[in-house]
Amino acid sequence: MRRPLEKEWELSIGPDTVRLFILKAKALSAAVNEDYADGAEHEVELDGQAHDNHHHDGLVEESSENLTEEELRELINDLNVDEAAELVALAWVGRGDYDASEWTDALTAARERANKRTAKYLLGMPLLADWLEEGLEAIGA
What we know:
By secondary structure, this protein is mostly helical. Helix content is 64%, strand content 0%. The chain has helices at 15-36, 50-53, 57-77, 81-95, 103-112, 118-123, 128-139. The longest helix has 22 residues, at 15-36.
């Protein structure tokens, strides 16, 4: 019979901070998914009076999407080295690259790969929000 996992970690990054990243990543993902849902996301039909009645609503939406991505990028860039490594390790555990019992290994690997492009790396993960959620759940945070 297996013993329940004992915590082998103390997170520098608070679980609530990770949950904020999850919310931001979900908002960003939802904006991208909505944008491409109909397959004709940027087609504009012009009539003879387009200059009179065309409002730039699409630009406002695009601006808010970019704000969400930029905001998330800045939040990640503001993390210290330990917090950034923990965020990457959580994503890896959530993705299944490491089991929760291998937390120390995941964290060591994340620290070894640490660089100035952590935000770009994390934002490039298609299921970042899901993986962070699953990572938090796996380690019991």
